[in-house]
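User: structure tokens for this one?
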Amino acid sequence: MRVLVTGGAGFVGSHVVEALRTAGHEPRVLDRLATHLPAGVEHVAADIRDGDAVRRALRGVDAVSHQAARVGLGVDIADIADYSADNDLGTAVLLRELAALGFDGRLVLASSMVVYGEGRYRCAEHGLVGPGPRTAAALADGRFEPPCPACGEALAPEAVGEDAPVDPRNVYAATKLHQEHLCAAYARETGVPVTALRYHNVYGPRLPRDTPYAGVAAIFLSSLARGEAPRVYEDGCQLRDFVHVRDVARANLLALQVPVPVPGPVNVCSGTPRSVGDMAQALCDAAGAGAPRPLVTGDFRMGDVRHVFAAAGRARTTLEFAAQEDFAAGMRELSAAHG
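Assistant:
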């Protein structure tokens, strides 16, 4: 199978390319950069918004893995045009060219857990509820758990499934959800099913570092590289699902190969929630006995969500996917790669 991987020289995309080659497929990469381009892979050096280049890259392919995107949460609202251009317009150009070519193969979209906003919560009295807002006064007072909108009591977090309401909280999240909506419209118009893999917190070799758009793992690594303690916001108990990039690449491979295409969203996760503080501690442990310990600051950012971690059932039943990488070993590998 010849597979076009957009963004195939990036963090996740390069691992998808490697997984495809290992499985005996023929990847072709469309990427304006060659940062992590594996040797011997055909490379179309172009922007995803360049329709002519996309058309050339699509010739003769059986499937598309759409990884190209501007990632991270951005710096401020001034990023809005760049995120919309790269993520939404780029996806629209790809879909337009696929439709023009009469493409009838497999299409997999790299989406994100950020489309959920806050996760799933249960009140002891009122059952499943949408969490009330976390106010600046409550956060400053150390009351970090979102309240029940009916009674004001703290809520218990639960794993979020793909049927949960979406609630993007920032520009990046809005563009990822729009990518899903564009792909759903394309699927309805053409009959080509699109699998939207909602990645949770991805880590592993080649994780970008030292950019304004880096995720929390990269920020912690940069602190440790400077000999400084990782600064953990709130109380460090925010729950996330940290999934290794090789597991993410394998989920992409399964989505491209599964006998019956899986339309719609699928969580890609480890299935084991861990706190941000747990990850900071694991990175400190991996850095060695002389490394500083995490510093829990109590600081907060109003746009942050408290808990969001995934239900892994749909990936297991539709793709036969279950994460395999060990968390502690993955943190040691990540630390060594950025040491």
